[in-house]
Amino acid sequence: MFEKRPINPIRYTQQMKPDTVTPYAKAGVQRGFEAILSPLLQQAAMNSTSIINVAIDGTHGAQYQHVLARIIDVLEQEGHKTVLIGTNSFVKTSEELRMFFEANITDNRAFGYFSDATIADYFVLEAQDKIDNYKKQIQLPAHQTTFIITFGPGAYWLGNGNYDITYFLDVSREYQQLEHKAHLLNFGFSWNRDVVEKYKICLFVEWPVLETYRKEVLDSIHYYVDMNEPECPKLTTVFTLRQMIADIAKSPMRVKPFFAPGIWGGQYLKKFAELPKEWANCAWSFEPIAPENSILLKYNDEIIEVPFLIVMHYEHPAILGNRIVGLFGDYFPIRFDYLDTIDGDSLSCQVHPKQEYIRETFNEFMAQQESYYIMENLENTSVFLGLTEQCTKEEFLNAVHHAQETGEPIQITDFVNQYEANKGDLFLIPTGTVHASGKNNLVLEISSTTWWFTFKIYDFLRKGMDGKPRPINIDHAFDNIDFDKRTAWVEDNLIPKPSLLQKQGINEEYVLGQREDLLFYVHRVHLHDTWVDHTNNEMVMYNLVEGEKVRIVSCADESIYVELQYAESYILPAVFSAYKIINIGNKPCKLVKAGVSKAWDVSLL
Prior knowledge:
six-stranded antiparallel beta sheet; alpha+beta; globular; seven-stranded mixed beta sheet; 16 helices
């Protein structure tokens, strides 16, 4: 059965030790609000001062109110006074933020410009001085301990780090997006146009600023709190969190998959992964798109959910290896995700921007290079790839404009090649290549880790799931289409035939696809019994595309292993070194293997 909540065990051979500089720290992971309260009560009991300064910082969307309500109740029952200061009192107005980030938000429905702002830019001028003056004016009782609690995103910065106890409440991007669909607005904003705008502002403004801020302050914070289950928070010290992350970074890892419906989505993933029945379909599954996913860590009997970005921040050398770090820093460069159109519909006819264009236009450092691996399909399925020999820029441009203006559909195959797609086929999609998956395919995308920059050329005049017209990006698209990628060139360059790389007994490894203009390679291992391999000091990714179950085992320590079932993906860190893949199912297996191409030497930093 496909595992939607894969657990990554902490394999420490001895009990972790808490950080001695963290007040009243305990080792491991504690559950519940009592764990959050305990350091505060101990501080009050052990400290003779009448003022205890507390910061409850964190990610926008975390349920601060759930925590504060319980803290206030208990502290006041114990006879202590509490003063609460919300960081939102010092944030610029919604109108000021929209004006400040105008060039990042833009008037395009889908695309913005990645912000280089800092946390200070969210706050009013001299905000740190203003909160300091505010605290000095608070009337304090003479014989009573007073907790001054500053809470909300930016709390640690706002108080200039001058706190006795500090917390960071965190949630995943998946959690935030579910909250956006309900009621949550962007940080500091009093209104949003719709969910699309919320995501756009998150992607281009909020996450670049707040997630960078999290990296900057996390080592100065005492306690990390997982708030993905608001009624059952999980607390650990940041010191302990780093120990846990250092441990999992030595062994194969699997992130928590992230599913989402879409207008063209199919039914295969919905049924296969047992997704909610009320979902109309499932279009995407991300596993991994590193910035979007979180990872579940298990220490003893407790599980804590952590954004994978934090894992990469602390352990990117161990995970990626030195050569890849030199090219991409702490950014995980390759993504696996599924596109499901089985009993759904075709994707839009689209193109992705080139490196120079995406940098200059969007301040994005990595171009969106892709490939389609056909994992499952029904009969008579296809992929659209490259332009027909007779297609001209003028005719194509006129046709798509006419369709948008009149609502009259066009025959897309007059302009774009349509190829038969069979299970196990790989189609390479460098930037500038017009492409789309047809209906009734389950595609495993093996791509560079950029995912938002899809310029829709023609979308069959469909509306989105919100009933609004889907954003079409004809101008961006035609600035990036390579009109020399036509039928003959496509067939010679983008639809490769498998090439045998090596054999081990009756097992084989094939090169499926590799090009100089793609930063990734795609291989496939045909496994009957056991395959022996080595990471060679670079990250490797696997997905079991055919078969039942395999076990990946460390050659150095056979007690360290993971088991992959069909359609699951694992990351093997660079430091994992020599390993074996053992078929533990009842029939032969095939695994897609991917990594950063040895020929890729272009640093994108």
